[in-house]
Amino acid sequence: MSTVTSTRHSKASIADSHRGDDVSIPVEGLLSANQTRVQPLQIVFRNLTYSVTVKNSPTTPANKYEPVTDQVDSNAAPPPPKSKFSLFGRGKRENQKVILQGLTGAFQPGRLAAVLGPSGSGKTSLINILAGSVRAGRIDGDLLLNGRRVTGDAIRRVSGYIHQDDVILATMTVEEAITMSATMRCPNLTPAERQQRVHEVIGLLELEKARHTVIGNTIIKGVSGGERKRCAIAMELVSNPSVLFLDEPTSGLDAYTAVTVTYILRELARSGRTVVTVMHQPSSEIFHMFDDIMVLQEGRTVYMGEASHAVDYFTRVGYRCPTYTNPADFFFMSVLYQFDPENLRADNKEELVLAESSRLDEVSTFWKNSPEAAQYEHIATHPLTRPITQEMLNQKSTFAVQFAILFRRAGRNVLRNKMVAQVKVMQAIFFGIFIGLIYLNIPGKDTLNAVTQDLSGALFFVAVNQFFSNAMPIITVFAEERQVFEREHQNGLYSLPAYFFSKNAIEVPFVIFTPSLFSVITYWMFGLQEDAGKFFIYLAVAVCVGFCGVGFGTLMACAFDNLQVTMVVTPLIILPLMIFGGLFVNSGSAPVYLGWIQWISPIKYGFSALAINQYTGFEYNGEEVGSKALDNLALGPFGILVNIVFLIVLFTVLYVFSYLALWRLVSRTKGDKSLRSKVSPKKQLLAPPLPEFPENNGDASMLAADVTATEPGSYSQGTLRGTTTALTASSPLNGASEKNQVTDNRSS
Ligand SMILES: Nc1ncnc2c1ncn2[C@@H]1O[C@H](COP(=O)(O)OP(=O)(O)OP(=O)(O)O)[C@@H](O)[C@H]1O
Known about the structure:
alpha/beta, six-stranded mixed sheet, five-stranded antiparallel sheet, 53% helix, binds adenosine-5'-triphosphate
C-alpha cells in the first residue's frame, strides 16, 4: 500500500502549476491507490432543455419567459398561458420559463471543468440536473454516462455533490463527519481500511489541524469557512466517487483558500475523476487551473472547451482580451455584458436592452456554428462506452449500521449541545416547584370547593405542561436539524427509517426522565393521595402525554417548510386541544360540530386519567367526595386504562404522521416524479451502451491509461492522455485535436 503524502503546498507550487509546468503532484497513495482506483466516467448532454412553470400576474407579458432563440423548437407555437383561480387575486397565469436552452456538451474524466456565467444564467440548474438534484420542472434532451442513457438520479449513484451551502451537523468534529460518511458509504471496507481512507482524505484536503474541531454554527464556534468547505468535499470524496460536482466551492473564501481548494479539485481530476464545478467569477489564478470551461448566458452556451483556448475563440468572435487581463473578468465585462456607465443614465434604456439582447444572440449563434460546437456534437454521437460496473456505484450500509451511527451521533449531539438538555431539566424543576407552590398541599385547603377547584386545576396543568414542554423544544431543534437530514439523505448517506427511529430513540430517556422529575416534585407538593399505585399511574400518564407532545412537535416541524409558519400554526392547533381538554368545556355540552376535538386531544385523555386516578377514593374531612367531583367534570365514559390506551394510540398516530411528513420531504428532494425514469438508476447504469454508439468507443486509449496508472503517481497522466485521445481521436477537427493534445500533455 502506498504511503500517504500530504499535499501541503506552498503558494509557489500552486503558481508553478498554473504555468502548466510539470510540477510534482503528490497524488500517489491518495485515493489513487489500487484499492480506491477511480473509473473514468464521461458525462454527455445532448439538446438539454430545462423549463419550469412560473406564476405571473395577468399583467406580465405571456412571452416574457419564452425562449429567445430557435434552439428549442422555434416552429412550435408557445403554449398558451394557463389561468388558475386565485383566492387573493384576479387569477394567476402560468408560463413556462425556459432556463436551459438546448445545451449540448460533455464533461471528461481526468479534467477539471468549470461552468461560468453571470448570476441567473443557469449554472446551478445545469449542475443540479446532472447531479440528480432538480426538484421541479421539465427536462428534455439526453444525458449519457459512458454511452448509457441515464437520468440525474443514476448519475447521483456514481457521483458526489458538494452544494454551495455546507450543511453539516454543527456538533460533529471534522474527523467524525468524514468517518461517519465513510462508514455509511463504504460498507465493504474493513474498519482499518476505512480509517486509512479517512486519514488519506484528511491529508489530501489539509484538514489535519482541524480534525478534532467541531464544525460549529452561529452559536458554537467551529472551523473556518475554508475548512468547512474542505470538510464537505472530504465527506463526498471519502467514498471515492468517479464524478464530483461542486456548486461555487470558493464562494465566501479568501483568495488563498479559494486557490487552494481549486488546486485540490484539479488534483482530484488528475486522478481520473470527472470534476465539474460552478464558479461565479474566478480569479485569474483560479481560471488558469481549469482544464475546460463552459460559459453560459441566459441558459445558452457561449463557449465550451479548453480554458486555454477561450481567449482565442472570443478573438475570433470579435472580442479581443487585452493583455494582462483576467480572461474570466474579460468574459463577464466585455462579452456577457458590455459595461458602460453612460448606459445607466441613458434615456433610451429599452433600445439599449434590445441591442444588448441581439448582440448576445449573435454571440450564441456564433457558438452554434463554430467548429468547437461541432466537436461536442461529434462527442455526443461518439461518446466513451467504457463499462460501468457494480463496484462503481455508491454503496450503502445496512439499516443496523446506519441506526447505530445515527444514534451515537444524536447522543453526542445531546451531550455537546448541553444547553438544550440543561434547559429541559431546569424547565421540569422550575415548573414543578412553581406549580407545586401555587397548589401546595391541596387537601389542606379550607373549603371543599377550593380543594376540588385546585385539584382539577393542578391536574389539568400537569397534562398541559407535559404536552407543551415536550412539543416546543422539538419544533425549534428539529427545524434546524431538518436541513442536515434533508442534505444527508439526498446525498445518500442513510435511509429515512434509520434517521427517524434513531432520532426518536434518543428522545426516549428525556421524555421519561423530565416528566418523572416533574411528577416527583409536584406529586408530593400537591399533597396527592399517598398510594404508590396512584403515584405510578400519575407518572405513566405524564410520560404518555410527554410522548404525545414530542410526536406533535415532530409533526409540526416536518409539516411546514418555514419555522415561522410552524410557530404561528402550532398554537392555533394547541389552543382547541386545550379548550377541549376536559376542564374548560363539559364533555356533554360542547356543540356536536366541535365536540369531536376532545377525542383527538391528548390533554383530554391525560387529564381524564389523572383526575379519575386522584378523585377515586378521594376524601375530605373523612367523607368520600371524589365521585361527585368526577360527575361534575363529566369526563366521559372511559376509565384510566382506556384513557392511557388512547394516549398510546394518539402518540402512535402522531409518529406515523410525522414519518409521512418526513417521507414527503424526502420525496420532494428526489424531485418531480416526471423527472424520474421508470428504469431504476442501477439498471440504467449497468445496462450496455446505446446500440447506436460504436462498441469500445475510446476504450482502447482509456485502457492504456489504466496500465500507466498502475505505476504510483502516473495514473492521472495516463487517464488524462487517454481522455484527450478519446475526446479528439475521431474528431473532424484534426488541427484542433493536435493542439488539444499538446496542451494536455503539457499541463499534466
Ligand atoms: N424552480 C424554479 N422556479 C423558477 N425559476 C427558477 C427555478 N430554478 C431556477 N430558476 C431561475 O432560473 C434562472 C437560473 O437559475 P440558476 O440558479 O441556475 O442560476 P445561476 O447561474 O446558478 O445563478 P447564481 O450564480 O446566482 O447562483 C434564475 O433566473 C432562477 O431564478
